[in-house]
Amino acid sequence: MNNPNSPKGDILIVDDVPENLQLLFSMLTERDYEVRRVLSGKQALQVVDMEAPDLILLDIKMPELDGYEVCKILKAQEKTKHIPIIFLSALNDTFDKVRAFDVGGVDYITKPFQIEEVVIRVENQLRLLKMQKEIEFKNKELILLNQDLEAFSHRVSHDLKNKIHIINGFTELITQEFSDQLDSHCKDYFRYIYDEGKRMAEVIQDLLRLSQVQNTELEYSTFNISELVTEISDKLIKENKDSIVDFVITPNIYCWGDLNLMRIVLENLLENACKYTSKTEKPRIEFGTFRKEGKNILFIKDNGVGFDSAMAEKLFTPFHRLHSEKEFKGTGIGLSTVKRIIQRHQGDIWYEAKINQGATFYFYLSEYRHNGVRI
Ligand SMILES: Nc1ncnc2c1ncn2[C@@H]1O[C@H](COP(=O)(O)OP(=O)(O)OP(=O)(O)O)[C@@H](O)[C@H]1O
Ligand SMILES: [Mg+2]
Q1: Ligand 1 centroid vs 308 CA: distance in angstroms?
Q2: Quick check: CB of 304 below 6 Å from ligand 1?
Q3: Looking at the CA of 324, which ligand is closest?
Q4: CA 366–ligand 1 middle distance (angstroms)
Q5: Which phi-psi region, left, alpha or beta, contains residue 371 (left: φ > 0; alpha: ψ -120 to 50)?
Q6: What is the distance between the alpha carbons of residues 331 and 200, in angstroms, rounded to a whole number?
Q7: 335 in contact with ligand 1, CB cutoff 6 A
Q8: Domain map of the chain by residue range?
Q9: Which reaction does it catalyse (predicted)?
Q10: pLDDT score, position 242
Q11: Disulfide check for 75: which of 104, 140, 184, 273 has CB 3.0–4.6 Å away?
């Protein structure tokens, strides 16, 4: 009885020996495969051109066009290159396995044929093909869904952004132009509208950035990440005149990645480190590196308020915050943007933190090798 799970398909057998053809034909038709057969490489190319099979069993030793040549031609054509080819060869032939795989064969069967072996090898390939098709289909669906979502969020964000700018613009205009006609209550209310509008614009801006990060092409280069950290920390100190943060930066650490995206990562991590040490007596932020399991791990360590790691499961998902807006301002999108960028670099990010004992964020990027030497 046939196995109900076995994938049935359309198989083309190519062999110049009619007895071989007949043997394989009956083996496979008995098992409900649809089988076509031809006696030469030339015929095979014609048949495939008319209607591509799911799988080809291809004899190697044939006059005129041999199996290797037929395989090469099929693999060079866009229309036929995806068809899996299993080579057929006699045990006593000088069969070059490396060449068979080199020209694009996926497997081989040696003559004399053993029924079970032929069936298993054929089924394996058809099953792989089926899985491949399913993955391709799901991928296409996912890409479309993703595109829809991106387009949707982009559209919503842009439209909302414009509307909020208009609301904020008019609020400001009213409070300026009609200042002498508004009592202090009224002015407070308008200030409230304006502040909330500004916050909303910030959230939208962050969301836009999050969706852009997913779409932009990465432009890789080697750069001095220590210099980037120094530049950003200088800017943060300048922006906050009261800052007394002690930055400790290991110099000359080099990195292979997209400079602009990595700037966003460091801005977010360093802004967080500053924000969450702003209530610490002697704030200290350290940037450094160490090597572990063959990777260059980078870290940003602070001695701020920290958090309870047990509660931080969703730290890298948008809008997830461990501190209240009253304690520390923020939208909760920073770390999700950071994580997406690191993932796009085929890297990873994680943390170590304890309440009131600071937080450390560790990350690495996929490494770049030049002539086998790691950079
Ligand atoms: N260095 C840190 N020390 C303590 N808590 C941190 C630190 N970094 C992040 N967190 C916690 O993780 C949460 C998420 O961080 P994230 O950067 O995504 O958001 P945010 O800083 O609140 O807002 P924003 O989107 O404006 O950056 C923060 O709300 C905070 O609770
Ligand atoms: Mg943040």
Answers
A1: 13
A2: yes
A3: 1
A4: 25
A5: left
A6: 9
A7: yes
A8: 10-113, 137-215, 220-374
A9: ATP + protein L-histidine = ADP + protein N-phospho-L-histidine
A10: 84
A11: 104
Token pair for 35? 């089988």
The yes or no reply on domain 220-374 and CATH 3.30.565.10 is: yes
- 363 CB within 6 A, ligand 1: no
- For 341-352, the pLDDT digits (tens) are 999 999 999 999
Q: How many Å apart are CA 190 and CA 223, to the nearest integer?
A: 47
- Token pair in block for residue 3: 């196995």
CA distances from 339 to 40, 222, 236, 268 (A): 56, 20, 22, 11
Residues 6+ apart with CB under 8 A from 248: 284, 285, 286, 287, 288
Side-chain-side CA neighbours of 67 within 13 Å: the count stands at 27
CATH class of 10-113: alpha beta
C-beta 210 within 6 A of ligand 1: no
Q: Which ligand is nearest to the CA of 328?
A: 1
Residues with Cβ within 8 Å of 253's Cβ and at least 6 positions away in sequence, in order, are 224, 225, 226, 288, 289, 296, 298
The span from the CA of 313 to the CA of 294, in Å, is: 27
Question: What confidence score (pLDDT) does residue 374 get?
Answer: 54
Ligand 1 near 330 CB (within 6 A): yes
Q: How much is the pLDDT for 6?
A: 47
Tokens read off for 86: 């299993």
**Can you read off the two tokens belonging to residue 330?**
């923020």
Query: 283 in ligand 1 pocket by Cβ < 6 Å?
Result: no
- CATH code of the region 137-215: 1.10.287
Q: What's the confidence (pLDDT) of residue 98?
A: 87
Task: Show the tokens assigned to 116.
Answer: 């079970």
Compute, in angstroms, the gap from residue 273 CA to the centroid of ligand 2: 8
Q: What is the pLDDT of residue 373?
A: 54
- The tokens describing 11, both together, are 């198989």
Q: Which of 321, 338, 352 has most ligand 1 atoms within 8 Å of its beta carbon, as the pocket-test mutant?
A: 321
Report whether residue 123 contacts ligand 1, using a CB cutoff of 6 Å: no
What per-residue confidence (pLDDT) applies to 2?
A: 42
Q: Would the CA dihedral through 132, 134, 135, 140 be positive or negative?
A: positive
Residue nearest to atom 7 of ligand 1 (CA): 272
| Cβ pair 79, 35 in contact under 8 A | no
